[in-house]
Design brief:
By secondary structure, the protein is of the alpha/beta class. It has 21 helices and twelve strands. Among the domains are: 154 residues, ABC transporter type 1, transmembrane domain (ABC transporter transmembrane region fold); 239 residues, Rossmann fold, CATH 3.40.50. Helix content is 64%, strand content 10%. The strands form three sheets. It has a six-stranded mixed beta sheet with strand order 6-9-10-3-11-12. The chain has a four-stranded antiparallel beta sheet with strand order 2-1-4-5, with no helix packed on it. Helix 7 runs antiparallel to helix 9, helix 7 packs parallel to helix 11 and helix 10 runs antiparallel to helix 11.
């Protein structure tokens, strides 16, 4: 895992390597200061040698300044290295997510992916900084301090050798205890993010049904789960500091006791005792820093595993080696197609679908909720792959195409229309980045969007808020249709995307399709028969299977489901 993550240091290797160098220099100068202090006391102050005291005092001040300068340099280099590392890792995760199919995203959930890109990356970055600085400084400081302490008085320094192994075992046991708890914490964060995301996305529904209290209770439940887990982990960690202080202050008391006796018996000087006490403080601080690093590493390890899960996830939709890069036409063929979100045959959403659509045809797709309409069309651009059977576009299996080339030939206006923050022009150019202003205006006229865009203060330069919250549902649908038209695709799929516009506007949009993209194959999923009545053929789906195919008149004569829908819409179901 460490090797995988280390690869993301990338161009920041120089900063990452320089950090430990300056940390080591900082430690050397810092450890020399007590040694110099002992000499100043014993050879300068007590003896009364003012010249020696001043000279060594200046050297001590120089070492202090050099220690501070090295510490500042280490902080600067570590910050640059950690920020760059986090940026590279976050970018790699985001890029990986862009390759995911819908099923990959469903596996992790949107809220979990957001947590991994934010909270988990921050935990890893903080641990990286700690490893560069503290994990270098603390062991080095402890070892050098022990060496100098032994050089001053080996008998007193032996006290530390008894305490250090005990404290090491103590910290290791805490680490083993808290790691599983932090793993649960981050899963709880996923749940909290999901509640927040769901609430903010559906805030209008929440307010219209006066469900604020219910949402607050959901949030409190998710938040309390994190609180409980953190308290449980911190309860274990709370023994860390008292345990260390008890051991190390106990060592200092013993050192002061035995040291004082040695001074009385003239086997040790006052300066030597002061340096031993200073080194004991350094050893205590080093052990405390090490325990803090272990806590951060414990949290970061759980986060790192979650990040690597994203990196290791393989998209189930990839381009083959010798992929076809040109879609010849918009013909579509379904051959014995079945699909299941779980991959199990007994959970099929679609089964035994056989359908042939000629290039340039306009096909209506009708069916009840859950009949598999959206799933059927999402297999055409390989948003999902068929569990069984074959889907062909232009007479070629969709799995043989380069995924990007296939999706460039297909434009979809989904059930949930999505606009992004930016101007109207910027949103429409998602369909074609090179589209001219004239092409944008023409597409909007065909989609019946030009009229309301022209009334906006800044016209096509009007800013759209994230999610298109500053336009109505019907306006959003028409802008999404215009975005699809700009693409000039070989296949256009409208997934119930005119439900928020009136029938007259819808008819005008269909007329625009006939004039602007006559050679494009058009698939129109709709709930209203008026939306598909004039199509070349209408496909009726029922419980994942094709119930009937034909024109309006043919289905009225031969298909019971179609007749029932027609009468319920046209005559209120009286017949």
């Amino acid at each position: 895992m460490i090797k995988r993550l280390a690869a993301f240091v990338g161009e920041n290797k120089k900063d990452a390597l320089l950090t430990p160098v300056f940390v080591c220099l900082e430690c050397v100068f810092e450890v020399l200061i007590p040694f110099l202090m002992a000499n100043i006391i014993d050879k300068g102050v007590i003896v009364g040698d003012f010249g020696y005291t001043v000279k060594m005092g200046l050297v001590l001040a120089l070492f202090a300044v050099l220690s501070v300068c090295c510490g500042i340099s280490a902080a600067r280099f570590s910050t640059n290295a950690a920020s760059g590392f986090a940026s590279n890792l976050r970018g790699a995760l985001f890029h990986k997510v862009q390759e995911f199919s819908f099923s990959n995203i469903d596996k992790f959930s949107t809220s979990s992916i957001i947590t991994r890109l934010t909270t988990d990356i921050n935990n890893i970055m903080q641990a990286f900084v700690a490893l560069l600085r503290i994990a270098t400084r603390a062991p080095l400081m402890m070892i050098v301090s022990l060496v100098f302490a032994f050089s001053v008085n080996a008998r007193l320094a032996t006290i530390y050798l008894c305490a250090v192994p005990v404290l090491g075992v103590f910290v290791y046991c805490m680490f083993r205890k808290t790691f599983p708890m932090f793993q649960k914490v981050f899963k709880a964060y996923d749940g909290l993010n999901e509640v927040v995301q769901e609430n903010l996305t559906g805030i209008r529904v929440v307010k219209s049904y006066v469900r604020e209290e219910h949402e607050v209770n959901k949030f409190n439940k998710a938040s309390n789960a994190i609180y409980t887990l953190f308290v449980k982990a911190e309860r274990v960690m709370s023994f860390n500091m008292p345990g260390m202080q008890l051991a190390m202050y106990g060592c200092q008391i013993l050192i002061c006791w035995f040291g004082a006796n040695m001074i009385v018996s003239h086997t040790m000087t006052t300066g030597q005792l002061s340096s031993i006490i200073a080194y004991s403080g350094m050893i205590l601080a080093s052990l405390m820093m090490l325990s803090m690093v272990l806590v951060m590493v414990s949290m970061a390890e759980a986060s790192a595993k979650r990040a690597i899960e994203i990196l290791d996830e393989q998209s189930d939709i990839v381009s083959p080696e010798l992929a076809v890069t040109l879609v010849p036409d918009g013909s579509i063929t379904f051959e014995n197609v079945a699909f299941s979100y779980s991959g199990r045959a007994d959970k099929n959403v679609l089964a035994g679908v056989n359908l042939e659509i000629k290039s340039g045809q306009t096909i209506g797709i009708l069916g009840g909720t859950g009949s598999g309409k959206s799933t059927l069309v999402q297999m055409i651009p390989r948003l999902y792959d068929a569990t069984e059977g074959t889907v062909k576009v232009g007479g070629i299996n969709v799995k043989d195409y380069d995924v990007q080339a296939l999706r460039d030939a297909v434009a979809m206006v989904l059930q949930k229309n999505e606009l992004f923050s930016g101007t109207i022009k910027e949103n429409l150019r998602w369909g074609n980045a090179e589209a001219t202003d004239e092409e944008i205006i023409e597409a909007c006229k065909l989609a019946q969007a030009d009229e309301f865009v022209a009334t906006m203060p800044d016209g096509y330069d009007t800013m759209i808020e994230r999610g298109g919250t500053n336009v109505s549902g019907g306006q959003k649908q028409r802008l999404c249709i215009a975005r699809a038209l700009i693409k000039k695709p070989k296949i256009l799929i409208l997934d119930d995307s005119t439900s928020a516009v009136d029938t007259a506007t819808e008819a005008a949009i269909r007329e625009g399709f006939r004039s602007f993209i006559p050679d494009t194959t058009k698939l129109i999923i709709a709930q209203r028969i008026s939306s598909v009545r004039d199509c070349d053929a209408i496909v009726v789906l029922d419980e994942g299977a094709i119930s009937g195919i034909g024109t309006h008149d043919e289905l009225m004569a031969n298909n019971k489901i179609y007749r029932e829908v027609y009468y319920s819409q046209q005559k209120g179901g009286e017949d």
